[in-house]
Backbone:
Protein backbone atom coordinates (compact mmCIF):
# COMPACT_ATOMS: atom_id res chain seq x y z
CA UNK A 1 0.00 0.00 0.00
CA UNK A 2 1.47 3.40 -0.91
CA UNK A 3 2.36 5.76 1.93
CA UNK A 4 -0.07 8.48 2.82
CA UNK A 5 1.91 11.70 2.51
CA UNK A 6 0.78 14.81 4.31
CA UNK A 7 3.01 17.79 3.55
CA UNK A 8 2.31 20.82 5.74
CA UNK A 9 3.99 24.12 6.42
CA UNK A 10 4.00 26.34 9.49
CA UNK A 11 2.46 29.63 8.37
CA UNK A 12 4.65 31.72 10.68
CA UNK A 13 8.07 30.14 10.17
CA UNK A 14 7.62 28.34 6.82
CA UNK A 15 9.12 25.23 8.37
CA UNK A 16 8.00 22.16 6.44
CA UNK A 17 6.58 18.93 7.82
CA UNK A 18 6.00 15.51 6.34
CA UNK A 19 3.42 13.49 8.25
CA UNK A 20 4.02 15.76 11.22
CA UNK A 21 7.83 15.48 11.25
CA UNK A 22 9.91 18.60 10.47
CA UNK A 23 11.87 18.05 7.25
CA UNK A 24 14.28 20.11 5.20
CA UNK A 25 15.75 19.90 1.71
CA UNK A 26 19.44 19.63 0.98
CA UNK A 27 21.44 18.25 -1.94
CA UNK A 28 23.83 15.39 -2.69
CA UNK A 29 26.68 17.81 -1.99
CA UNK A 30 25.50 18.13 1.59
CA UNK A 31 25.00 14.44 2.27
CA UNK A 32 28.29 13.56 0.54
CA UNK A 33 30.19 16.06 2.67
CA UNK A 34 28.44 14.98 5.88
CA UNK A 35 29.46 11.40 5.03
CA UNK A 36 33.01 12.54 4.31
CA UNK A 37 33.09 14.44 7.59
CA UNK A 38 32.03 11.26 9.40
CA UNK A 39 34.84 9.38 7.63
CA UNK A 40 37.39 12.09 8.39
CA UNK A 41 36.37 11.78 12.03
CA UNK A 42 36.85 8.02 11.89
CA UNK A 43 39.09 8.06 14.96
CA UNK A 44 36.21 9.68 16.88
CA UNK A 45 33.72 7.07 15.67
CA UNK A 46 32.24 9.32 12.98
CA UNK A 47 30.72 6.61 10.74
CA UNK A 48 29.14 4.90 13.76
CA UNK A 49 27.73 8.21 14.99
CA UNK A 50 26.12 8.84 11.59
CA UNK A 51 24.75 5.31 11.39
CA UNK A 52 23.29 5.43 14.92
CA UNK A 53 21.73 8.87 14.43
CA UNK A 54 20.05 7.72 11.20
CA UNK A 55 18.75 4.56 12.86
CA UNK A 56 17.30 6.46 15.84
CA UNK A 57 15.72 9.32 13.93
CA UNK A 58 14.30 7.23 11.09
CA UNK A 59 12.98 4.64 13.51
CA UNK A 60 10.93 7.36 15.20
CA UNK A 61 9.46 8.37 11.84
CA UNK A 62 8.59 4.76 10.90
CA UNK A 63 7.14 3.84 14.29
CA UNK A 64 4.99 6.95 14.30
CA UNK A 65 3.59 6.17 10.85
CA UNK A 66 3.04 2.50 11.70
CA UNK A 67 1.23 3.35 14.91
CA UNK A 68 -0.96 6.08 13.43
CA UNK A 69 -1.97 3.88 10.52
CA UNK A 70 -2.48 0.68 12.53
CA UNK A 71 -0.10 -1.38 10.38
CA UNK A 72 0.42 -4.86 11.80
CA UNK A 73 2.07 -7.12 9.21
CA UNK A 74 5.87 -7.19 9.14
CA UNK A 75 5.88 -6.89 5.37
CA UNK A 76 3.76 -3.76 5.39
CA UNK A 77 5.75 -2.28 8.25
CA UNK A 78 8.94 -2.89 6.31
CA UNK A 79 7.32 -1.32 3.29
CA UNK A 80 6.89 1.92 5.23
CA UNK A 81 10.68 2.29 5.42
CA UNK A 82 11.15 1.26 1.81
CA UNK A 83 8.67 3.82 0.56
CA UNK A 84 9.90 6.60 2.81
CA UNK A 85 13.39 6.02 1.38
CA UNK A 86 12.12 6.95 -2.08
CA UNK A 87 9.95 9.82 -0.84
CA UNK A 88 13.02 11.31 0.87
CA UNK A 89 14.81 11.14 -2.49
CA UNK A 90 17.35 8.65 -1.13
CA UNK A 91 16.89 6.06 -3.88
CA UNK A 92 15.08 2.82 -4.53
CA UNK A 93 15.29 -0.35 -2.42
CA UNK A 94 14.57 -4.01 -3.02
CA UNK A 95 14.22 -5.93 0.26
CA UNK A 96 14.24 -9.64 1.06
CA UNK A 97 14.43 -11.31 4.47
CA UNK A 98 12.71 -12.15 7.70
CA UNK A 99 13.11 -11.37 11.39
CA UNK A 100 16.54 -13.03 11.41
CA UNK A 101 17.89 -10.72 8.75
CA UNK A 102 18.06 -10.43 5.00
CA UNK A 103 19.36 -8.41 2.12
CA UNK A 104 18.63 -4.94 0.82
CA UNK A 105 19.64 -3.90 -2.66
CA UNK A 106 19.75 -0.31 -3.84
CA UNK A 107 18.98 0.02 -7.51
CA UNK A 108 19.32 3.78 -7.14
CA UNK A 109 21.14 5.63 -4.40
CA UNK A 110 21.15 9.38 -3.80
CA UNK A 111 24.31 9.20 -1.73
CA UNK A 112 26.29 6.83 -3.96
CA UNK A 113 25.30 8.44 -7.23
CA UNK A 114 25.77 11.87 -5.70
CA UNK A 115 29.23 10.92 -4.41
CA UNK A 116 30.26 9.70 -7.87
CA UNK A 117 28.89 12.90 -9.46
CA UNK A 118 30.91 14.96 -6.98
CA UNK A 119 34.16 13.07 -6.65
CA UNK A 120 34.07 10.01 -8.89
CA UNK A 121 34.22 6.39 -7.71
CA UNK A 122 35.32 5.56 -4.20
CA UNK A 123 37.63 2.71 -3.24
CA UNK A 124 35.41 1.41 -0.41
CA UNK A 125 31.74 1.38 0.61
CA UNK A 126 30.62 4.61 2.25
CA UNK A 127 26.88 4.42 2.77
CA UNK A 128 26.81 4.45 6.59
CA UNK A 129 23.62 6.46 6.25
CA UNK A 130 21.76 3.58 4.62
CA UNK A 131 23.24 1.02 7.04
CA UNK A 132 21.49 2.95 9.82
CA UNK A 133 18.37 3.34 7.73
CA UNK A 134 18.11 -0.39 7.02
CA UNK A 135 18.63 -1.22 10.71
CA UNK A 136 15.75 1.12 11.56
CA UNK A 137 13.57 -0.42 8.86
CA UNK A 138 14.10 -4.02 10.04
CA UNK A 139 13.69 -3.00 13.67
CA UNK A 140 10.37 -1.29 12.90
CA UNK A 141 9.20 -4.22 10.75
CA UNK A 142 9.80 -6.80 13.47
CA UNK A 143 9.18 -4.58 16.54
CA UNK A 144 12.67 -5.00 17.89
CA UNK A 145 14.57 -2.38 19.89
CA UNK A 146 17.24 -0.12 18.41
CA UNK A 147 20.52 -1.82 17.53
CA UNK A 148 18.83 -5.20 17.05
CA UNK A 149 20.21 -5.55 13.54
CA UNK A 150 23.78 -5.34 12.27
CA UNK A 151 23.98 -4.06 8.72
CA UNK A 152 27.06 -4.24 6.49
CA UNK A 153 27.46 -2.87 2.99
CA UNK A 154 28.79 -5.62 0.72
CA UNK A 155 28.52 -3.93 -2.68
CA UNK A 156 28.52 -0.24 -3.50
CA UNK A 157 27.33 1.87 -6.41
CA UNK A 158 29.93 4.41 -5.31
CA UNK A 159 32.62 1.79 -6.07
CA UNK A 160 31.27 1.21 -9.56
CA UNK A 161 28.95 -1.73 -8.85
CA UNK A 162 25.60 -1.65 -10.67
CA UNK A 163 23.74 -1.94 -7.35
CA UNK A 164 24.54 -1.51 -3.68
CA UNK A 165 23.90 -4.47 -1.39
CA UNK A 166 23.46 -4.54 2.37
CA UNK A 167 23.47 -7.70 4.48
CA UNK A 168 21.27 -7.59 7.58
CA UNK A 169 21.75 -9.89 10.56
CA UNK A 170 19.79 -9.99 13.80
CA UNK A 171 22.25 -9.40 16.61
CA UNK B 1 10.37 47.46 -8.71
CA UNK B 2 12.69 45.54 -6.46
CA UNK B 3 12.20 42.02 -5.13
CA UNK B 4 9.02 41.86 -3.05
CA UNK B 5 9.93 39.40 -0.38
CA UNK B 6 6.42 38.40 0.69
CA UNK B 7 5.38 37.71 -2.90
CA UNK B 8 8.40 35.49 -3.46
CA UNK B 9 7.91 33.61 -0.20
CA UNK B 10 4.24 32.96 -0.97
CA UNK B 11 4.96 31.79 -4.51
CA UNK B 12 7.86 29.47 -3.66
CA UNK B 13 6.37 28.07 -0.47
CA UNK B 14 3.73 26.21 -2.47
CA UNK B 15 6.28 23.75 -3.76
CA UNK B 16 6.55 20.26 -2.27
CA UNK B 17 9.20 17.77 -3.31
CA UNK B 18 9.34 13.99 -3.22
CA UNK B 19 11.25 11.27 -5.03
CA UNK B 20 10.41 10.30 -8.61
CA UNK B 21 9.96 6.74 -9.92
CA UNK B 22 13.67 6.11 -9.24
CA UNK B 23 13.40 7.40 -5.70
CA UNK B 24 15.51 10.43 -6.62
CA UNK B 25 14.81 14.17 -6.75
CA UNK B 26 16.82 15.67 -9.61
CA UNK B 27 16.30 19.44 -9.35
CA UNK B 28 18.44 22.56 -9.71
CA UNK B 29 21.29 20.59 -11.36
CA UNK B 30 21.75 18.45 -8.23
CA UNK B 31 20.11 15.50 -6.49
CA UNK B 32 17.89 16.90 -3.76
CA UNK B 33 17.04 15.05 -0.55
CA UNK B 34 14.39 15.68 2.05
CA UNK B 35 15.46 14.68 5.56
CA UNK B 36 14.10 14.93 9.08
CA UNK B 37 15.48 17.99 10.83
CA UNK B 38 16.08 15.91 13.95
CA UNK B 39 18.51 13.71 12.00
CA UNK B 40 20.64 16.66 10.88
CA UNK B 41 20.58 18.40 14.26
CA UNK B 42 21.34 15.23 16.21
CA UNK B 43 24.26 14.33 13.96
CA UNK B 44 25.70 17.83 14.38
CA UNK B 45 25.29 17.70 18.14
CA UNK B 46 26.87 14.25 18.52
CA UNK B 47 29.81 14.73 16.17
CA UNK B 48 30.62 18.02 17.92
CA UNK B 49 30.27 16.36 21.32
CA UNK B 50 32.57 13.53 20.24
CA UNK B 51 35.35 15.91 19.21
CA UNK B 52 37.91 16.87 21.85
CA UNK B 53 38.50 20.59 22.37
CA UNK B 54 41.41 20.69 19.93
CA UNK B 55 39.32 19.10 17.14
CA UNK B 56 36.07 21.07 17.47
CA UNK B 57 37.15 23.75 14.99
CA UNK B 58 37.87 21.03 12.44
CA UNK B 59 34.40 19.48 12.86
CA UNK B 60 32.78 22.91 12.77
CA UNK B 61 34.61 23.71 9.54
CA UNK B 62 33.40 20.43 8.05
CA UNK B 63 29.78 21.21 8.92
CA UNK B 64 30.03 24.71 7.44
CA UNK B 65 31.76 23.30 4.36
CA UNK B 66 28.93 20.82 3.75
CA UNK B 67 26.40 23.64 3.73
CA UNK B 68 28.70 25.91 1.74
CA UNK B 69 29.25 23.51 -1.14
CA UNK B 70 25.59 22.52 -1.10
CA UNK B 71 24.65 26.20 -1.18
CA UNK B 72 27.15 27.16 -3.86
CA UNK B 73 26.21 24.44 -6.34
CA UNK B 74 22.51 24.16 -5.53
CA UNK B 75 22.28 27.94 -5.24
CA UNK B 76 23.53 28.36 -8.78
CA UNK B 77 20.89 25.85 -9.89
CA UNK B 78 18.21 27.73 -7.96
CA UNK B 79 18.96 31.21 -9.27
CA UNK B 80 19.10 29.93 -12.83
CA UNK B 81 15.98 27.73 -12.44
CA UNK B 82 12.70 28.16 -14.22
CA UNK B 83 10.82 28.84 -10.98
CA UNK B 84 13.30 31.52 -9.86
CA UNK B 85 13.18 32.99 -13.36
CA UNK B 86 9.38 33.08 -13.28
CA UNK B 87 8.90 34.31 -9.71
CA UNK B 88 11.93 36.42 -8.82
CA UNK B 89 13.61 37.67 -11.98
CA UNK B 90 10.69 39.87 -13.15
CA UNK B 91 11.17 41.89 -9.94
CA UNK B 92 14.94 42.22 -10.24
CA UNK B 93 15.93 45.82 -10.95
CA UNK B 94 19.01 46.09 -8.77
CA UNK B 95 21.11 43.23 -10.12
CA UNK B 96 22.94 41.04 -7.63
CA UNK B 97 21.43 42.86 -4.67
CA UNK B 98 17.93 41.81 -5.76
CA UNK B 99 19.04 38.29 -6.57
CA UNK B 100 20.35 37.98 -3.02
CA UNK B 101 17.05 39.33 -1.67
CA UNK B 102 15.29 36.68 -3.74
CA UNK B 103 17.64 34.01 -2.44
CA UNK B 104 16.84 34.82 1.21
CA UNK B 105 13.15 34.84 0.37
CA UNK B 106 13.70 31.33 -1.02
CA UNK B 107 15.57 30.30 2.19
CA UNK B 108 12.51 31.47 4.09
CA UNK B 109 9.97 29.88 1.74
CA UNK B 110 11.68 26.49 1.87
CA UNK B 111 11.93 26.45 5.64
CA UNK B 112 15.71 26.70 5.99
CA UNK B 113 15.65 30.00 7.83
CA UNK B 114 13.25 32.89 8.22
CA UNK B 115 15.94 35.30 7.23
CA UNK B 116 16.72 38.46 5.33
CA UNK B 117 19.41 41.00 4.55
CA UNK B 118 19.70 43.90 6.98
CA UNK B 119 22.87 45.48 5.58
CA UNK B 120 24.58 45.10 2.23
CA UNK B 121 27.68 46.78 0.88
CA UNK B 122 27.96 45.29 -2.57
CA UNK B 123 30.90 42.99 -3.02
CA UNK B 124 32.22 43.79 0.45
CA UNK B 125 29.93 42.97 3.32
CA UNK B 126 26.48 41.61 4.13
CA UNK B 127 24.66 41.22 7.44
CA UNK B 128 21.84 38.69 7.69
CA UNK B 129 19.32 38.27 10.47
CA UNK B 130 17.35 35.08 10.95
CA UNK B 131 14.36 34.95 13.29
CA UNK B 132 13.82 31.22 12.93
CA UNK B 133 16.14 28.46 11.73
CA UNK B 134 16.14 24.75 12.36
CA UNK B 135 19.66 24.63 13.78
CA UNK B 136 18.47 26.77 16.68
CA UNK B 137 16.71 23.62 17.93
CA UNK B 138 19.93 21.60 18.16
CA UNK B 139 21.55 20.77 21.43
CA UNK B 140 25.10 21.70 22.24
CA UNK B 141 27.05 24.74 23.24
CA UNK B 142 27.71 28.11 21.67
CA UNK B 143 26.71 29.51 18.29
CA UNK B 144 25.97 26.59 15.99
CA UNK B 145 24.09 27.69 12.87
CA UNK B 146 26.67 26.06 10.61
CA UNK B 147 24.20 25.53 7.77
CA UNK B 148 23.17 29.16 7.60
CA UNK B 149 26.79 30.30 7.74
CA UNK B 150 27.68 28.07 4.82
CA UNK B 151 24.67 29.11 2.76
CA UNK B 152 25.26 32.83 3.34
CA UNK B 153 28.88 32.54 2.33
CA UNK B 154 27.87 30.56 -0.76
CA UNK B 155 25.28 33.06 -1.95
CA UNK B 156 27.61 36.03 -1.50
CA UNK B 157 30.21 34.14 -3.54
CA UNK B 158 27.60 33.48 -6.23
CA UNK B 159 26.59 37.14 -6.29
CA UNK B 160 29.94 38.94 -6.11
CA UNK B 161 32.88 36.57 -6.63
CA UNK B 162 34.12 35.27 -9.98
CA UNK B 163 31.37 33.65 -12.06
CA UNK B 164 30.31 30.09 -11.18
CA UNK B 165 32.16 27.77 -10.69
CA UNK B 166 35.34 29.83 -10.23
CA UNK B 167 34.28 32.03 -7.33
CA UNK B 168 34.43 29.60 -4.46
CA UNK B 169 35.97 30.62 -1.14
CA UNK B 170 36.14 34.34 -1.88
CA UNK B 171 34.06 35.36 1.13
CA UNK B 172 33.61 34.02 4.63
CA UNK B 173 30.66 34.13 7.04
CA UNK B 174 30.81 34.47 10.82
CA UNK B 175 27.88 34.07 13.16
CA UNK B 176 27.67 36.87 15.73
CA UNK B 177 24.32 36.14 17.45
CA UNK B 178 22.15 33.07 17.82
CA UNK B 179 18.70 32.09 19.00
CA UNK B 180 20.35 28.93 20.30
CA UNK B 181 22.30 31.00 22.85
CA UNK B 182 19.37 33.18 23.90
CA UNK B 183 19.58 36.06 21.43
CA UNK B 184 16.32 37.23 19.81
CA UNK B 185 17.68 36.36 16.37
CA UNK B 186 20.65 34.85 14.63
CA UNK B 187 23.03 37.29 12.97
CA UNK B 188 25.54 36.46 10.27
CA UNK B 189 28.25 38.67 8.81
CA UNK B 190 29.78 37.94 5.41
CA UNK B 191 33.06 39.63 4.50
CA UNK B 192 36.02 39.03 2.21
CA UNK B 193 38.15 36.13 3.26
Residues:
Amino acid sequence: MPLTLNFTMDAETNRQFLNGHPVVMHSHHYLSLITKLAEDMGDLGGPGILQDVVEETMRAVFDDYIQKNGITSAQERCNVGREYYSVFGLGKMVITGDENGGEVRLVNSHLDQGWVMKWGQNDKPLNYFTCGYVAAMFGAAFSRPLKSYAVTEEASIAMGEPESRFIVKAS
Amino acid sequence: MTVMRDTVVKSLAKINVQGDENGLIPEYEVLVNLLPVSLLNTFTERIMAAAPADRKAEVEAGLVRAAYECGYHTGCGIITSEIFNDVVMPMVTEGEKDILRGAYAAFTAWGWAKSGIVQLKEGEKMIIRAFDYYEADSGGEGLRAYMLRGLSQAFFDLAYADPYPDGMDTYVCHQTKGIEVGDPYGEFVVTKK
Observations:
- Chain A has a mean pLDDT of 97.
- Strands of chain A lie at 7-9, 16-18, 21-27, 91-98, 101-109, 149-155, 164-170.
- The helical segments of chain A are 28-40, 46-68, 74-87, 110-119, 128-141.
- Chain A has five helices and seven strands.
